[in-house]
Amino acid sequence: MFLLLPFFLYSFLFDEIKGGNILYKICRFWGDAFFFATGISHRNIYEEEHDRSKQYIFVSNHISYLDIPMMMKAIRGQHVRILGKSEMTRVPIFGSIYKKGAVLVDRENAGKRLQSIKNLIYFLNKKISVFICPEGTFNMTNQPLKNFYDGAFKIAIQTQTPIKPILFLDTYDRLNYKSIFSLNPGRCRAVYLSETSTKGLTTNDVALLKDKIFLQMEEGLKRYGASWVK
After folding, report:
1. How far apart are CA 120 and CA 82, in angstroms?
2. Torsional class of 104: left (φ above 0), alpha (ψ -120 to 50), beta (otherwise)
3. CA diameter of the chain
4. What is the pTM of this model?
5. Which of 69, 66, 7 is nearest to 33 (CA)?
6. Is the distance from CB of 114 to CB of 155 less than 8 angstroms?
7. Average pLDDT of adjacent 10-residue blocks, the chain of 230 residues
């Protein structure tokens, strides 16, 4: 991060669209370097053809600190913004970079949560996809997933943007949330599941859409043998 700091500062010279796009390019390079240095090999698995010219609401499971560099590795060739926790901005230096690149959400403040949704819609209107972890925080259970929040699905319906689920199968094994000292080399797979259209859906369909994506991802994690599922 410190070696790349001049490049991060360069991205701060531009507006939130161009500057953010530059910052994500730098972060992808950082992710590549980090994976190489730690002996982690990444691979995307596509269960159907992925159209990088479209905008999506990407959703994934969340079970490791390694999920963030995995987002950088998994999504290439298209612009994206990540919905992130506002608490991360308190980390010295990294927090400033994080604030520039992520759409922040304060889960304790209803007004700020609403502003986060407006910011995500703004980026979608600028032809930039968004990435949301609908579990909200780490899944610390032996189940495939925690319960989902509604936000990703409300935004998808409101903007009529398709949802594209991605499974992170191995981040739990490479870096367990219980200890940062659990980092170890090995494979890290991201599975692109089939997209779900939101065309014609209304706010009355949020629960049905959420349940559909939950079941799709749950079945996928079981099918690929996610190691934390008992």
Report:
1. 9
2. beta
3. 49
4. 0.91
5. 69
6. no
7. 88 92 94 96 97 95 94 95 82 82 73 76 89 94 96 91 97 93 96 97 97 98 96
Per the DSSP assignment, residues forming a β-bridge with 105 are 85
* Domain 5-223: which CATH number of 3.40.50.720, 3.40.1130.10, 3.40.190.10, 3.40.190.80: 3.40.1130.10
Which residue do the tokens 């991201």 mark?
Answer: 190
Delimit the domains of the chain by residue range.
Answer: 5-223
Q: How far does the chain reach from its first CA to its final CA, in angstroms?
A: 37
Place of tokens 């890290």: 188
